[in-house]
Structure formats: C-alpha cells, structure tokens
Design goal:
This protein is α/β, with parallel strands linked by helices and about 230 residues long. It has a single domain, classed as Rossmann fold (3-Layer(aba) Sandwich), CATH 3.40.50.1820. It is built from nine helices and eight strands. The strands form two sheets. The chain has a six-stranded parallel beta sheet with strand order 2-1-3-4-7-8, sandwiched between helices. Helix 2 packs across helix 3. It is globular and about 40 Å long.
Length: about 230
Amino acid sequence: MDILLIAGLWLDGSAWDDVVPELTALGHRPVPLTLPGQGDGNASATLGDQLAAVLAAVDAAPGKPLVVGHSAAATLAWLAADARPGKVAGVVLVGGFPAADGQAYAGHFPVEEGAVPFPGWGPFEGADSADLDQEARDRIASAAVPVPEAVARGVVQLTDERRYDVPVVLVCPEFTPAQAQEWIAAGESPELARAAHLDYVDLDTGHWPMTSRPRDLARVLAEAAGS
C-alpha cells in the first residue's frame, strides 16, 4: 500500500528518512511529501497549495493510500479525507488533532516577517522533547523551514461529512490514549468526536517519533495499513 507521509510545521519530506526504509522492508510504498512552502523555497505558498499537493499524491496512488499526518499536519491528512473520502483508505494522526472547520491551520505560533519560524526548544520542553538528545535537537532545528504565514494562518474548510466514515488511527506519543480520550470527550477535538472508526495507539516517546522511534513508528503505520 502507498503510505503518504506528511510532516508537521517546519519539516520537509526528509523528516521521514529513518521511517522510509523500515516501511519499505515491511512491504509498503512510503511516499514522504515535501509541501509547498516547507522545503521548496516557495515563501508565498498557501494552505490551499499544501492541500493541493497532498491531493495530487492521493490521486497519483494506484489504489487507496493511507494518509499520515504528523502534528499540525494531522489537519492536512483530515482535509484529504474530507476532499477524497472514497479514495483514502484511512488516516493516521501522529501526535496531532485535526482543526475544526473555520479554524486557523496553525494559529498558535507568532508570525515574523511573513512566516512562522521554528521557535526553538523552549515551547517543547518536557514530554515533547525529553527523548531527544542534543544531536537530534540540532538536526531538527537546522533543517527547520519557516512556514509561510498564508499556510499557518490559512482557514480550514471542511465540507463532506463522509470524512467521518474514513478509519482513523490516533498515535499517542507524548500523551496517552486515556488523555486523548478525555480531551475528545471534553470537546477539544470535535472532528475526532464524530469519527465513526477511531483507534488509539500508545507510542511512548516524544513529539517527533520519526526521529526518536522510527522503527516502532513504521511498525504502527504498517499495522494501520494492514487493517
């Protein structure tokens, strides 16, 4: 199965470099995406441009692909399910929850000179990054690409309720499945609250499991593809 890999803010397709060979060895075809504005030099890219790139990859797949969204890109994966509910085999959300209709894609980090730069490790101290050594932190930070404002502040538009029938797996790295269930029950993720097929996977690590536990993450993704 084709497994489309969408990294979160500031990351390009190389974020999945350690996951790709593991998925290939497990018999799948991983397709890491470098999004417009996050690695291709297009500083004027919009959220619509990024979604178009994801949908182009969905449409190019020979069958129904599994769409994986990490962190903020959980919303992009969910937007793909909304736009192609009959074409997407399932969605895996890694450490992220999809924004609701009418919300900003990523409105929680400040804009500087038309882009949202990587803010450093301060906002991620604790469970998010405790499993990353200094080498891993330096590697992520050095590869980080400022996200165009028109991406981060783009408004999410969801239109097809058939998305709720697309199977969803929520991978819980820096939080537990029990915490995720509590948040959803409390109304903090109205989209996942309406998902008809939602499974939880506990992956005890930090916010960047493609760096900290790539083999285990690949196994989780392969299992999701198999189901």
